[in-house]
Write a structure and sequence with these properties.
Distance between the termini: 21 Å
Shape: globular
Radius of gyration: 17 Å
Strand content: 35-45%
Number of helices: 0
Oligomer: single chain
Length: 191
């Protein structure tokens, strides 16, 4: 098993999506300190290779606090959904004519739209993942300790109270309360 590090590029990788773009072999890491999305591939020996990066704070993108992100192909269009923690939004980036994520003009040809999640009750969005089986997104609300399932357009499907699954041990009532801090989500196959 190989391991890799993002330290040569970012000391604060807040979002990573292990869903790889099947056409390019690329995956994505967000950095809220540098307001950047890094695009990587992995070598056969497990080493990271930086392909490119682009700013989320650029005019036309507008995400000053990129948190979690997720890659999806929806109706044959490549999409990158990025959480804007401070703005309480989800930014939806669609790859341009070149078929790769490289940011908005003038450096790239992607288009970006966004929708607010504040109106559906998400106060502190952090992590996000796409579920291709249901064509929905899961968004973690750190402050509200909930997991929201929403459509790719931002409509609420359901909200799940995470606290009910992480109650402290009755022998040590404070054991988990101080440690409970949901910040990311990953969809994986059932075992």
């Amino acid at each position: 098993t190989a391991t890799a590090t993002t330290l040569p590029y970012t000391k604060e990788p807040v979002g990573i999506d292990i869903e790889v773009d099947a056409e390019t072999g690329q995956f994505f890491v967000s950095d809220d300190g540098k307001k950047t999305i890094w695009v990587f591939t992995l070598t056969a020996t497990g080493q990271l290779t930086r392909v490119r990066s682009f700013l989320t704070s650029a005019t036309g993108y507008g995400n000053q606090d990129p948190e979690g992100l997720t890659f999806a192909t929806i109706n044959k269009e490549k999409k990158l959904f990025t959480v804007n923690g401070a703005g309480r939004k989800i930014h939806v980036q669609t790859s341009g004519a070149n078929g790769m994520f490289d940011g908005v003009a003038p450096n790239g040809d992607d288009s970006v739209t966004s929708f607010s999640v504040a109106g559906i009750g998400i106060g502190d969005p952090e992590g996000i993942d796409y579920n291709p089986a249901t064509n929905t997104l899961y968004v973690v609300d750190r402050g509200g300790e909930k997991l929201f399932e929403i459509t790719p357009a931002g409509q609420l499907v359901r909200a799940i109270n995470l606290r009910q699954y992480f109650e402290p041990d009755s022998r040590n009532p404070t054991s988990l309360r101080s440690e409970f801090n949901p910040a990311d989500v990953t969809i994986a196959p059932r075992s």
